[in-house]
Write a structure and sequence with these properties.
about 375 residues; alpha+beta; seven-stranded antiparallel β-sheet; two-stranded antiparallel ribbon; about 15% strand
Length: about 375
């Protein structure tokens, strides 16, 4: 078994996937309404797609292939508006956020689809605990070797992306103390974490064949890595982001990643190396636990910096690339959030501190998603 040909793809093209929560309008717990919502969505023409996810209280919306931040935002807006219309007909709400604040995993039901049933059979209760909600960003690559180089280059910015997108402080009614508790559920899967350090597609294909011979994997879908290549699309897929509370934030994060990719490709500020991964797990934990106030260890120098400070320095380095990619608006939104709440986890905690009622937190999440204020 081989991976086959790496598909042709326009360099630095974008694709975005967002997993959304479906909640009832009574107590704002999760609602098993995915099937009905998908049925109503068939009447809408949208630029991408809306598909089921592993449990029936969640759905995934996907853009088509986009060239820039503005196109991502336009496509997400069109699909969001269609989804909100359909949800209102069912008297359910939709919202972002990496976890639902108080749902009980044992009450979830697996969506009836062959792959989801297979995953449920393999992973047992972990499948229902996988009712968490993330944003995935695809970046087009001109070839497979370039894709692997970009994958490893972006890996040192994984903590930045986790901290910026963090929106999952609450799990089953409890403040976990993490800004991104969602990723703890992902880490429970045996094939999560980082990709192996190989920079040539021939070597990566050999690795995949060895894994396939063990019977552990059958396709790239079986790897839950933080970043993974997607040869059928000609992309790499960044998978660590929590679903933001607004589509504006989701589009801005996609634009930020696109700018990082162009900076890495054009300026080649460093050559990826296996040693880049020495502080990887520590950096990732710091970002999940403390968000933008976490510690970032520079893989090259060993210097310790606050993640917030490193993000701000990165934004300055990306300005020229944002101009070339027409992503100035994306970086401006991220700067504004850094100057305000910082990330959605802080906003969610702020609402809970004021209201002392998690269903009210979810209600306000729904309003924020529908209204579209960043």
């Amino acid at each position: 078994m081989t991976l086959g040909r790496f598909a042709d793809s326009r360099s630095l093209s974008l694709g975005v996937e967002l997993e959304l929560q479906i909640v009832n309008r009574h107590d704002y717990d999760l609602s098993p309404s995915a099937k009905d919502l998908l049925r109503l969505m068939q009447k809408h023409e949208i630029p991408g797609s809306v598909t089921p996810e592993i449990t029936d209280s969640m759905i995934e919306l996907c853009t088509g292939i986009c060239t820039d931040h503005a196109q991502v935002l336009a496509q997400l807006t069109q699909t969001r508006d269609a989804l909100v219309d359909c949800a209102s007909r069912l008297n359910v709400g939709l919202c972002g956020g990496g976890t639902h604040p108080f749902q009980k995993w044992s009450q979830r039901r697996i969506f009836d689809k062959p792959r989801f049933n297979e995953l449920s059979s393999l992973y047992g209760y972990l499948s229902k605990q996988f009712t968490v909600f993330g944003q995935h960003v695809h970046i087009g690559c001109p070839g497979p070797d370039q894709a692997l180089t970009l994958l490893h280059g972006l890996s040192r910015f994984i903590p930045h992306l986790i901290a910026l997108s963090a929106s999952s402080p609450f799990v089953q009614g409890t403040d976990t103390g993490y800004d991104s508790a969602r990723l703890n559920s992902v880490f429970a899967f045996p094939l999560s974490g980082r990709a192996p350090f190989v920079t040539h597609w021939e070597d990566f294909n050999a690795y995949f064949q060895k894994m396939a011979r063990t019977g552990v994997v059958q396709s790239m879908k079986d790897f839950y890595w933080d970043i993974r290549p997607k040869p059928e699309f000609g992309t790499i897929e960044v998978r660590v982001l929590d679903t933001p509370l607004t589509i504006e934030k989701a589009a801005a994060l996609a634009g930020y990643i696109q700018c990082l990719a162009r900076w890495l490709r054009v300026e080649r500020p460093f050559e990826p190396a296996e040693d880049d991964y020495l502080p990887y797990t520590f950096n990732r934990f710091q970002a999940c636990r403390f968000g933008l106030d976490g510690t970032f260890v520079d893989p090259s120098t060993g210097e310790h910096r606050r993640l917030r400070d490193d993000v701000e320095a990165t934004l300055q380095m990306l300005e020229i690339h944002a101009m070339e990619l027409k992503a100035e608006g994306a970086l401006a939104l991220i700067r504004a959030e850094l100057a305000g709440d910082g990330n959605d986890a802080t906003w969610l905690r702020g609402v809970q501190d004021r209201e002392h009622l998690l269903p009210e937190v979810v209600r306000q999440q729904c309003l924020r998603w529908e209204v579209g204020t960043a």
